[in-house]
Design brief:
2 domains, alpha/beta, Enolase-like, domain 1, 17% strand, TIM Barrel, 392 residues, eight-stranded mixed β-sheet
Length: 392
């Protein structure tokens, strides 16, 4: 049997460990405030780890070769992958990604046009692309059309802006931690995060703002007030300022945001979801996630939509490499997101990855490693394989 005739023999969903490297933990392991507009007593809070609910899909061929993709929303996606998708994948060719995507999408339509089902579909599809690259001994970006540049410029998502400047990143995206329920003190704290970042950056280095509206419960009034307050600090874009379905208020926000760009999309899914945004002229920058938005097969279509509307694409940066390969193959993407796993050292990988592409002097170079070029540490997730609820 040749490698190109390989068939899918098994699919496994692993739970990734919920701990990051112990040295200098990233600031996103933080208390997050949930403040929904409903009559609840007090403030709802919980501690959220960046990879608390992250799982790993592994697709295995008859030859024993594996393709991998991380995903989110944990147990709910695991149920869909193992109970709805797995039996349909066994015996299929991993090269038939287009047909498989549409088959899986259609069977989950009654319960999953968005949300967990698309997350699960995106992880399966992305794992298939990893597997295709390994079977062909080619990096994924070459399967997507080849390289469009020698190196990828990187911006960092962190509230430690100085570390991005020190390592030559093209910009930094700071994350807001407060919302309307935190009052004026919370509003001032958000402004202070942006102000401190601007003061830490050299001239010409971009500053972006992640509002994290899903956790901080920003509304239009708060977002408009915030945008006016930060304009003197010249942020390049503002991201997730409102909930993703609040399209009417996004249109109002955009009218008042200039010259700050509106970036949306990392919580949106499928080409049809992104088309809604484009038809209403909401985004200045589109931010699909290579996995969550529907997988590599679907995100390439989203990228083509963005190109037709002459909009830049900045891919969401989960684990880096997946967005790097999309960026490398996309003429319309001028930079990629990097999420820190160590607050001081951008070369530190999460403890479930042995090797993978990391920034050097503010850029990432993708070599000839097949697939996405990530080697996972199987010892870190074999004991965390999803099982009984009490094992979670």
């Amino acid at each position: 049997m040749t490698m190109n005739n390989s068939r899918i023999a098994d699919l496994v969903v692993h739970r990734l460990p919920g701990t990051l490297p112990p040295r200098n933990p990233v600031k996103f392991v933080r208390e997050v405030g949930y403040t929904p507009k409903c009559p609840l007593n007090g403030r709802i809070t919980k501690t959220k780890n960046l990879f608390y609910d992250t799982y790993l899909v592994e697709i295995i061929t008859e030859d024993g070769l594996s393709g991998f993709s991380p995903g989110k929303v944990g147990e709910s996606a695991k149920i869909i992958v193992e109970n709805a998708f797995k039996e349909l994948l066994i015996g299929q060719s991993p090269f038939d990604t287009e047909r498989i995507w549409h088959h899986l999408y259609r069977i989950c339509l009654p319960y999953g046009r968005h949300g967990s089902a698309i997350h699960a579909l995106g992880a399966v599809d992305t794992a298939l692309w990893d597997l295709k690259g390994k079977l062909l001994e080619e990096p994924v970006y070459r399967l997507l059309g080849g390289g469009t540049r020698e190196k990828i410029k990187i911006y960092g998502t962190t509230n430690n802006a100085a570390v991005c400047a020190r390592h030559g990143f093209t910009g930094v995206k700071v994350v807001m931690t407060k919302g309307p329920s935190d009052g004026d003190q919370g509003f001032k704290r958000n402004l202070e995060i942006v102000r401190q970042a601007r003061e830490s950056l050299p001239e010409g280095m971009d500053l972006m703002i992640e509002c994290d509206a899903r956790y901080n419960s920003w509304d239009l009034t708060y977002a408009l007030r915030f945008i006016e307050a930060v304009k003197p600090l010249h942020p390049y874009w503002i991201e997730d300022a409102l909930l993703p379905d609040d399209l009417r208020n996004y249109q109002i926000l955009k009218k008042h945001a200039y010259p700050i760009k509106i970036a949306v999309g990392n919580l949106e899914q499928t080409r049809w979801g992104f088309m809604r945004l484009l038809e209403k002229s909401i985004p200045d920058i589109l931010q699909p996630c290579p996995i969550f938005s529907g997988g590599i097969s679907e995100v390439t279509k989203i990228a083509q939509l963005a190109a037709a509307f002459d909009l830049p694409v900045i891919y969401h940066g989960l684990l880096g490499a997946y967005g790097y390969h999309m960026t490398m193959a996309d003429m319309n993407a001028d930079r990629a997101e990097f999420m820190f796993f160590d607050e001081e050292d951008p070369t530190v990988l999460p403890n479930f990855i042995k090797t993978g592409p990391v920034p050097q002097n503010g850029t990432v170079t993708l070599g000839k490693q097949p697939g996405f070029g990530i080697e996972f540490d199987s010892s870190s997730f074999q004991t965390n394989r999803y099982g009984r609820p009490e094992d979670l």
